[in-house]
Amino acid sequence: MSRLRSFTLDLNPPSDFGPLKSQYEDTVKKILTESNRMAKRAGISSKDEMHIVLLTEETISVLPHLTEYGSGKFWIDVTDDLFELHISVTPKSASGAKARKVSEPAKRTIMGRVLGVFDRAASKKGESDDNTSWSLGSYIEKLKQQDQGSALEEWDEMEHSILANIADDVVVKRESNSVDLIISKKVKPNSFSF
User: Fold this and answer.
1) Domain regions of the chain by residue span
2) Dist CA 107 CA 115 (whole Å)
3) Is 173 helix (H, G, I), strand (E, B) or coil?
4) Phi-psi category of residue 12: left, alpha or beta, with phi > 0 → left and psi -120 to 50 → alpha
5) Residue 87 pLDDT more than 70?
6) At the topology level of CATH, where does 3-186 sit?
7) pLDDT at residue 31 in the model
8) DSSP letter string over 53-120?
9) DSSP designation for 126
10) pTM to 2 decimal places
11) What is the mean pLDDT of residues 158-178?
12) pLDDT, position 142
């Protein structure tokens, strides 16, 4: 089994002020660069590379929300035919700043659901709880078991979601002191180039 791991990048809350704002912009550039580098290094198809870029951009779009809870880490794991984008955030203590709430229209999107689970997990302050774990794969299985009419809105969300259409799974889970977001994509394995 072949395994590649990217550099780990530190994530800090973005700021509207001078050097901190440019530091955040530098982090975004580093994430995109690292994602491209890992896709090339894994030797995946150009279609899979494009999908990885889209998933990376989706990941970057939620960083301001996730890092409101505290600092975190970003890295990529590639194992044989699986490409994973990881974000791990360590929530601040109870006295820390509150995260932005997901707006009502955003809650009705797949990413909004992901952020809602992340919010619940991050607010648990050190508790590990299965109720704060969520998987896109499990969510789809539950939808398949429902009456099509009652789940029509949810299926519509899925149809319009980059995550649902490209990622093979999205997982949010509480791990002791951190909350983790993992976006997985199966890729066509070629030979790894080290």
Assistant:
1) 3-186
2) 8
3) strand
4) beta
5) yes
6) Heat Shock Protein 90 (3.30.565)
7) 93
8) HHHHHHHHHHHHHHTTS--EEEEEEEETTEEEEEEEE-PPPTTSPPPPPPPHHHHTSHHHHHHHHHHH
9) T
10) 0.82
11) 89
12) 87
